[in-house]
Amino acid sequence: MTERRPGQWPVVTPIELPEPDEQGEQHLALTKAQAAWVMPLESIRVHLSEQPSIASIRTTERRLKAEIGNLADEAVRQLKKAG
Question: Has residue 1 been placed in a domain?
């Protein structure tokens, strides 16, 4: 057995990391924006697919729509309050 732990192994050929540039930052911002949109939708899709019947899918849909409406109303109130 060696005295090294995983993560401490010597790197045989280190890679050179590119310098951050404007295009890379724009790509990162776009990726974050896409993730912020796709991840909640995927979560909702999975939740709906776990429902046992058509009726429960539609009930869940109505609940989610109502909750999203409540979130939008709160966001509007906060925006109006801010200025």
Answer: no
